[in-house]
């Protein structure tokens, strides 16, 4: 794959050119007005709808951003990738006996499929799958939250990454559906630890706050065969990085993953806080943030920005 789009005789990847391109893409995205900020908990409903950020981190270490790219926000389901990395490391191939790797074709918090399939979630990117992963972490780490937090801080090289405790608490207060998923899995024998402890880990993880710059830096290893380009550390094996990217391609964008693959063609994960990260193998990471969501739960402006950038730079992996 080549990413050498030439503009006016100069590579678009020259820092000034890339910044100008990101600026024009962000301006265009601001004309998209069809989303609605997540309102299932008050702490998310209060977030200003006009925040907008776009960051590109390339494997040579350059980070180019426009908009509110250093403002931390609730990363929500994007955190499912962090949990999955640790669970894959701990469990190896046996993880895939407890969670599948198939797209669900259902909304992210659907319950019906989980009963038909006897408590084995379709994939780790839907809520049931991420709760199962949280069970693995709670069961296999003496301090599962610290394990996630120190990994995340190391990946984005920022020691102050934290959790919004208000979001964490309201997730718990409004978590009946996630609790139903967890207890259903427990009834099938697919949750080992105490359900309340598992849910607490899951809600805590969803409440991590990071900026688009943090996110773009953190996931660079997925574009770099598992190795962090900044520290040179092998974060996951190349094979596990490929597997995570495959899951993101098939299941990372909720029930709009097929359309995202068709129109953008990149492994990606979104969260109901309005963030999206997209991995461009051997090039870098794109991270976008804008709180209003489309009907699938994906950031409307974030989708527009990533689609526009990927199309202009010819980044599709297909
Ligand atoms: N905390 C949210 C939930 O479990 C995460 C949703 C998401 O970002 O997909 O409902």
UniProtKB/TrEMBL annotation:
Top EC category: hydrolase
Catalytic activity, reaction form: L-glutamine + H2O = L-glutamate + NH4(+)
Signal peptide feature range: none
UniProt-listed GO biological process terms: glutamate biosynthetic process; L-glutamine catabolic process
Protein's name in the database: Glutaminase
Keyword flag Acetylation: yes
Sites where the protein binds substrate: 77, 127, 171, 178, 202, 254, 272
The entry's keywords: Acetylation, Hydrolase
Keyword Hydrolase: yes
Gene label: glsA
Subunit comment: Homotetramer.
Organism: Pseudidiomarina aquimaris
HAMAP family (UniProt xref): Glutaminase
């Amino acid at each position: 794959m080549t990413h050498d789009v030439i503009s006016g005789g100069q590579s678009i990847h020259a820092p000034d050119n890339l910044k100008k391109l990101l600026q024009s893409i962000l301006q265009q995205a601001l004309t998209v007005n069809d989303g609605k900020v997540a309102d299932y908990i008050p702490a998310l409903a209060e977030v200003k709808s006009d925040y907008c950020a776009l960051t590109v981190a390339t494997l040579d270490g350059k980070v180019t951003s426009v908009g509110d790219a250093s403002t931390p926000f609730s990363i929500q389901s994007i955190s499912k990738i962090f949990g999955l990395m640790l669970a894959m490391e701990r469990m190896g191939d046996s993880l895939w006996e407890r969670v599948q790797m198939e797209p669900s074709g259902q909304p992210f918090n659907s319950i019906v499929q989980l009963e038909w399939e006897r408590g084995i979630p379709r994939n780790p990117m839907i809520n049931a799958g991420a709760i199962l992963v949280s069970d693995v972490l709670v069961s296999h780490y003496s301090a599962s939250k610290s394990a996630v937090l120190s990994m995340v801080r190391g990946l984005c090289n920022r020691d102050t990454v934290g959790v919004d405790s208000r979001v964490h608490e309201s997730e718990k207060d409004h978590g009946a559906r996630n609790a139903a998923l967890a207890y259903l899995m427990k009834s099938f024998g697919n949750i080992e630890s105490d359900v309340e402890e598992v849910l607490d880990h899951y809600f805590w993880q969803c409440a991590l706050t990071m900026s688009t710059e943090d996110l773009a830096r953190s996931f660079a290893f997925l574009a770099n065969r598992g190795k962090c380009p900044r520290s040179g550390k092998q974060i996951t094996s190349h094979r596990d990085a490929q597997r995570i990217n495959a899951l993101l391609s098939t299941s990372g964008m909720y029930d709009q993953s097929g359309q995202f693959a068709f129109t953008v063609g990149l492994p990606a994960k979104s969260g109901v806080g309005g963030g999206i990260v997209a991995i461009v193998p051997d090039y870098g990471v794109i991270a976008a943030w804008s709180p209003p969501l489309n009907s699938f739960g994906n950031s409307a402006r974030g989708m527009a920005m990533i689609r526009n950038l990927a199309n202009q730079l010819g980044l599709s992996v297909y």
